[in-house]
Amino acid sequence: MAHIKTGVIGHPISHSKSPLIHNFWIKHHNLDGHYEAIDIPPENLPSALPRLLKDDGYTGFNLTIPHKEIAMDICDEIDPIGQAIGAVNTVHLREDGKIFGTNTDAFGFIYNIKQQFPDYDFTRGPAIVLGAGGAAKAIIHGLLQENVPQIIVLNRTLGKAEALANVDPKVTARPWDDRHDILSNAALVVNTTALGMAGKPPLDLALDKLPTSALVSDIVYAPLMTDLLTHAKARGNDIVTGIGMLLHQARPSFKLWYGAMPAVTQDLEDLVL
Ligand SMILES: NC(=O)c1ccc[n+]([C@@H]2O[C@H](COP(=O)([O-])OP(=O)(O)OC[C@H]3O[C@@H](n4cnc5c(N)ncnc54)[C@H](OP(=O)(O)O)[C@@H]3O)[C@@H](O)[C@H]2O)c1
Fold it and tell me: pLDDT tens-digit profile of 89-146?
């Protein structure tokens, strides 16, 4: 088999952990290939992405900020997941010469929980989603696929939460100030905002009303143990850190390009953190 070239395109991109993840799996599976980070400004993506795939011999790419929406117009075909989320984070040059796009963020969020808590029942009760950006959109799609009975989205900019609520009657939007009181019958709480991330303000969330049976997830992974997770763990809630979503979202991309479904292992997590 020929050397398989892949990578991640973003702007900026030097911070990306994706090369570490995919090159770890290439080595682990004894494959002939490599994965690199490429910085391309958004105005150049429509010409650069087809050229890299069709002329420069790349098999596929991950796309990250600010390219996930722009790339939709460059793909010849987008699967129903990418269409539902309205963004693609993975492209693949198929044998027929067409550029195929999909989104693996929902998979990453859901399979991280499934690996860490195999008995967690998504149908058990309401999910509270804090934030209404790109990550929230993918996570809500994943939660709906898992038949979560009710999803409540709270966001500083209420209009963005309302836009997400329009996708399905099970999703409702609430003002950001309601976030403390809304926790009383939550089965799952997910922070998808940038709050709590190193260099950003803390997430101000009182957990007093949250049942201790609720699962608490933070998709911020720098730091790994955010204040939200530290407080939730101290009061007895199960917690899910953000690094697993990053690692699991990479799995379907790797499978698409290299043919093998890779595993998320402690070795990989230690390498990436
Ligand atoms: N673990 C993973 O694999 C993974 C994957 C994707 C993203 N992430 C992380 O998730 C976070 C969000 O990513 P994204 O792509 O969804 O970003 P995004 O589209 O820019 O959305 C950012 C969200 O954070 C909210 N926010 C930002 N500053 C705030 C503040 N001061 N007060 C209240 N809300 C605030 C925004 O509210 P407004 O709408 O009101 O601005 C919005 O809901 C980032 O920290 C990112 O690193 C992790």
Answer: 999 999 999 999 999 999 999 999 999 999 999 999 999 999 999 999 999 999 999 9
What separation in Å is there between the alpha carbon of 150 and the centre of ligand 1?
A: 21
Whether residue 174 is found in the same domain as residue 83:
no
Q: Are residues 204 and 225 in the same domain?
A: yes
Q: Is 17 marked active-site? A: no
How many Å lie between the centroid of ligand 1 and the Cα of residue 197?
A: 9
Please check whether residues 148 and 187 belong to one and the same domain.
Answer: yes
Residue 123 and residue 32 in one domain: no
Give the number of the atom of ligand 1 that is nearest the alpha carbon of residue 176: 33
User: From CA 108, how far away is CA 248, in angstroms rounded?
Assistant: 4
Q: What pLDDT, in 10s, does the model give residues 162-191?
A: 999 999 999 999 999 999 999 999 999 999
Confirm or reject: Cβ of 133 under 6 Å from ligand 1: yes
- Gap from CA of 130 to ligand 1 centroid (Å): 9
245 in contact with ligand 1, CB cutoff 6 A: yes
CA dist 135 and 227 (Å) reads 20
Domain range enclosing 37: 4-103+245-272
Question: Per the residue annotation, which of 68, 160, 209, 255 is the catalytic one?
Answer: 68
- Signed CA dihedral, 147, 183, 129, 238: sign only: negative
Cβ atoms 131, 161 nearer than 8 A: no
Cα 183 to Cα 205: distance, rounded to the nearest angstrom: 10
